[in-house]
Each structure stands twice: as structure tokens, then as C-alpha cells.
Amino acid sequence: MGRAIGGDPADVARAFEHLPAVVWLLEGPEHIVVAANRAARASVGDLDLIGMPIRLAGKALPGTRLLDMLDEVYREGRTLSVQEPDALVTVRPLIDAYDVVTGLVAQVVVLADQPPPFRRDEHEVALDLQLAVLPHGLPVLPEISMAAVYLPAGANDAAGGDWFEVVPMPGGRLGLIVGDVVGHGPRASAIMGQLRAIVAERMLLGGELRDVVNALDTFARSAPEARGTTVCVAVLDRQNGSLAYCTRGHPPPLVVGANGDTRVLPQPSGPPLAFGDGEFMFADDVLWPGETIVLYSDGAVERPGRTIVEGIGELAACAAQVVRVNGTGQRALADRICQSGLQLIEDGHAPHDDASLLAVTVLLPFVDPLVMAVPASPEKLTDVRRELGRWLTDLRLMEEDLVAVELSVIEAVTNSIEHAYAEPGGTVQVEASLDDIGRLHIEVSDTGTWKKPDDEPGFRGRGMLMMRESMDEMRLATTSKGTVVEMCKTVRRPVRTGATRVAPARDEDLDDLRIDMMSLPDSLWLTVSGALDGSSAARLRSALLEAARGGSRLPITLVLDDVTALGSAGLRVLTEQGRRLGDAGRVLRVVASPNSPAGNVLSISGVDMLLDVRSHA
């Protein structure tokens, strides 16, 4: 029989927020939700169940038997566990000192097929090597949308030598390649890295397609481990859509039309690298706006009991279906094709060979610039973030680039709001555009005269520091007409691998600030989610002041893992309140994982040196 929650309260809080299981704390015979960890909240989407009966979630709850178990455990006062095909559901009673059931703890652990623990063997080392040398991001170009996926071989097979590369070349061209090194293990991964470096160098120097293939062939002839490598190399002229390509022992490219029609490009004969007499055929084609070219390795089209031709046909049908039902616009096509191709490859079993897909969609050469003007008021920061977020979301950037750009723009706008105008009525202008080599150019301007900032040594200037650290270039110019902040950053698209997940599209509602407070015997816990900047920082200040009331000496633990944006205004509240609490003999602990937006900003700004910042509770 269970007893009331005991032990280290920090462990309880950690279970609620960080355990990889759904955990609900329920009270009374109606099973009112009094606490839910992050996994539990995510499992029911936007439904806020705190203070409500858990039955309101209905079928949204994970675990098909959960609701049926609650009454039985509450009535019988004994723990009940049920093994389901994909989850382990456990409900245990909370019993007071008089052996009366007062509530329940419900836990759902989603099961997955996991290999048994093993030491770091050749497979793991090779996979680490492979993921390290594959590109982690793809260029973001105005008239091209692209995506890539890499799925390593199954756990019982040594990681192979699949590789790919995308290189913006001089003269408005784009170089594409997918290759497969013969063999497996660390050596194959190392050879793959060398081949990829050769391709990148030749393409960056503007070499012709024949030069690139000959350089690969020359290296393979001198390196026995590279002999027999297969490649498909293509060069696309971004101005007119002309395509030159060559396959060396590799499956031919696939083209998917804007209407879903597909064609497999004619395959010039050519043996794998280091074989043959050194003279090989090249072919030409033209890609029109709306068409997508797909390069892939043989692991992406090999199917048990099917020929490789049949596998290519299945991939073509899969891509065609994506185009025909696509409802998210052409800029999302490449990503959708790769995601569907990945699902086709997995198809319920781990592949016995690496698999790679690289999809490139030709678009009309337009990414409309973002131009907006807002009143110089802190309340308008939310409008700036949401409008900017919509524009950036269409570009489908890597999460770290998206966060960096949003942070820098909000900081620049905040500076104009705080410094430019002594009287109400001023405006701040934001302009953003993408150039033809994948760089974002951003300009934030005002027409006021900057006032001298408040004298606060040790804090002022952190916003400027964050902008300089987050962007590739940043310039501030003040004239008699006003102040202009110019910023530039080369941005990338994410690459999906079997070891990583692409961050989902941002939900605007997630930016709304929410602060949840929970009192435990050893600490007051404040969990913050949403955007924390000049428009919302005052709410955090109020919450911290409220938590410090009543003469309690308990530490205050502030959890920032779910903060989507942390600006200098939020940092200022953290440093001010941390110092104030310290002067009063209170402790403020800040929890933010290093890879979270808040953790990244705390590190860049140096505020992690001023506060007790921890990576976990």
C-alpha cells in the first residue's frame, strides 16, 4: 500500500518535470488533477486539467486502461499496474496517517523496443563519427528549398559510409551529391569525411562537374578503402534550372513534378569510383519551378523481396503522393518528401544498410522581405515576435538559428523602445530579407534620439553582447535622423537523422507567458513557459516578489526549460531579484538546460556567472 509522498521533495519535483514518463497527481474521489509533469501536460495537448477531473481528457490520455484503474485503486487502496502493448500503466494510492486514501499518483511509461545495454563498440564509434562529419545544416536560399535525412543501419549492423553534401557555388550554381562508401565501421566513416571534403573544396572553388568527379576518382584510386564508392553528383544552375549530373555506380536521380508526375532521369553508364578508364558520360536536364529532384543511396530503395527498380518505384510513388496532398506550400515539399521517404524506409523494421535522401525543390526566386513598423511600446514586442516568427517559420530554419534571430531582433527593438523616444508617439521599423547565398539581413531603425541608459554597471550592455554573439555581423549607427541596427547571419535548415529530431513548427500560443508555482517542503518552485522579455518581464518580477513574501526562508527554484525566448529585460529581472533575495538571506536557483533558449542566453550574456544556474533540478 502506498503512503503520502515523502523522501526528498526535490526528487518529487524532478519526477513531475523531468522523468521520461507521464505523471499525474490526483486528489479526492473525483480524481481532481492537482499536479502534472511536463510529459503529462504534453500528452493532452492544449487541455489545461489543473483543478479539473482527469476524466475530462477522455481518449487524449495515454494508456487505454488508465481511467478504468482510478476508481479501483481509490476504492481498494492498493497499487495496480497493467502492462499494455505499448505502455506500462501504474496507479498507486496516497494514504494519510489514518490509512485513508486521499489521492492517487498515476504514471504511464511509454515502452519502446530498446537494445540491451552495451559497451561503446565499433558500431557506436562509427555512428558517432558519421554523424560528426555529415552536414548538420543545409543552406537556406530564396529560390530553392531543400531537406535531407540520414538513417543509420540497425543496431546489429555496423554503421556504413552514406554521405551527402550541398554547396552553393560561384555563378549562381548549386552543387549536390549523395555517396556511399564500400564497407562499414570507423574507417568507412573516415573515408566518407575525406570524400565530402574534396567535393566541398572543388565546388566552392567553382569547379565544373567533370572536375569534381575526376577529383573523387583520383582520390579513390590512391586510397584502397575508397575504391568502389558510388556517387551521384549534380550541379544545378539556379538562374535557369539547367541540371548537369553524373552517376557512378549509384541509383539515378528522381524528379517529382509540381503536379505529382515523376520521372527517373536517364542514367549515364559509369562504374564506381576508381574503376574504368577515366572517361565517363555526363547528362543534362532542366528543372522547372515547382519540381523537386531527389538524390538517394541504395539503402533508401532496397526492400526485402523486391528489386532495386521496384524500390525506386515505391519511392517515386511515395514522393508523388506527398506532392498531390501537400497543403503546406512548395517551400515545405522537400521536407515532406524526406519525412515520408524516411517512414517508407523504416516501414516497421531497422534497415540493414545506411539510407540517405536529399530533396531539392526549385521555387520562384522570391522570398518577400519582411517590413513592419510598430509603436515604440513594450506591449508591441509580442506583435513583433509573432510577425517575425511567421516570416521565419516559412523559411524552416534550424531551431538554433531561429532562436538567435528572434532574440537579436527583439533586443534591437527593445533598445529603440527604451532609448529612442522621451515622449510617446515614436515608431520602430523592422526590415528583414534573405539574399541569394542564404544570409539574412535585418535592419531595426527609429527616428528618435537615444537617451542615456540608466546607470547600472555590470548589467547594461548585455543585450548588445547577445546580439553580437548571436549574429554573424552587427553594426550600430546613430545619426541626427535616428539610430539603425544592422545585422546579418547565414542561416541553415536542419538535417534529420536517425539520432535527432527536427524541432516542430513553433506554436504562437506557446509564446504567451505562464508561471506555475508549487510549494514543497524544501523549496518554492516556479516553472516559467513562454516568452520572457520587455512585454512580460514585469510578471516574473511580481511572481518572484510574491514567492518571497510571508517571511519564509525557503529557497526559490525557477525552472526556465520551457521559456521560448529570454531577452535582456528578463535577464535584468533575474539579476535584480537574485541580488535582492541574496541580500535578504534567500536563495534563488535557476534551472535551464544548456541547449534550451534560456540556457543559451544565460551563457552568452554571462548571467550564469551571477546566479546559481543549474542544468537540471
TrEMBL record:
<dbReference type="InterPro" id="IPR001932">
    <property type="entry name" value="PPM-type_phosphatase-like_dom"/>
</dbReference>
<dbReference type="InterPro" id="IPR036457">
    <property type="entry name" value="PPM-type-like_dom_sf"/>
</dbReference>
<feature type="domain" description="STAS">
    <location>
        <begin position="513"/>
        <end position="617"/>
    </location>
</feature>
<dbReference type="Pfam" id="PF01740">
    <property type="entry name" value="STAS"/>
</dbReference>
<dbReference type="InterPro" id="IPR003594">
    <property type="entry name" value="HATPase_dom"/>
</dbReference>
<dbReference type="InterPro" id="IPR052016">
    <property type="entry name" value="Bact_Sigma-Reg"/>
</dbReference>
<dbReference type="Pfam" id="PF07228">
    <property type="entry name" value="SpoIIE"/>
</dbReference>
<dbReference type="InterPro" id="IPR036890">
    <property type="entry name" value="HATPase_C_sf"/>
</dbReference>
<keyword id="KW-0378">Hydrolase</keyword>
<dbReference type="InterPro" id="IPR002645">
    <property type="entry name" value="STAS_dom"/>
</dbReference>
<dbReference type="InterPro" id="IPR036513">
    <property type="entry name" value="STAS_dom_sf"/>
</dbReference>
<dbReference type="Pfam" id="PF13581">
    <property type="entry name" value="HATPase_c_2"/>
</dbReference>
<protein>
    <submittedName>
        <fullName>Serine phosphatase RsbU, regulator of sigma subunit</fullName>
    </submittedName>
</protein>
